Amino acid sequence: MPPQILLTSFTTWLPHQKSNSSDDLIAKIHKLCLTNNDLQLPPLSVLRKLPVETQQASNYVNRKITEIQPTAIICCGMAESRTQLTVESNATCGDIVLRSPIDLEQLIAELSVTQISHDAGKFVCEGLYFAVLNHITTQQLNSRCLFVHVPILTDENMQRVTKDFILIIQKMALL
């Protein structure tokens, strides 16, 4: 069976936000998969517009992980203050730090607008990332998880961000 990738995104949480860039990016990827057979992406399952509440979002995602047993999970969130895609190296909850088992340096080596971050934000993004990493560990699942923060998407960065994100998906499928 080919690897399956689970992609997640959040809805907005502040009044000025017309959309969530993480959801916009996943919607674009999903549309590209339907219209472009040359992308060479593995089967994707998507959970879009998760509530911006850690426990609810974590419950939805962990139930989906248990249900479909994806090879990889790429959780995405919006980072309004960042200008590039950022892959998160770890998630904390209290004094506990869970680190991504993925070689992030290797993952981003060929990407043009992606950096490694060591601060997942201390908000729902980090809470979800921690919960998913913990779920994978405690349930002894054979899945890899990555959290990607997506900058505000503009006409100037959309093509490069999309290209990097597609490469991240392709690389995660090979892990």
Automatic annotation (TrEMBL):
Q: Which UniProt keywords apply?
A: Hydrolase, Protease, Thiol protease
Task: Fetch the InterPro entries from UniProt.
Answer: Peptidase_C15-like, Peptidase_C15-like_sf
Indicate yes or no for the key word Protease: yes
Keyword Hydrolase among UniProt keywords: yes
Similarity-based family: Belongs to the peptidase C15 family.
UniProt name for this protein: Peptidase C15
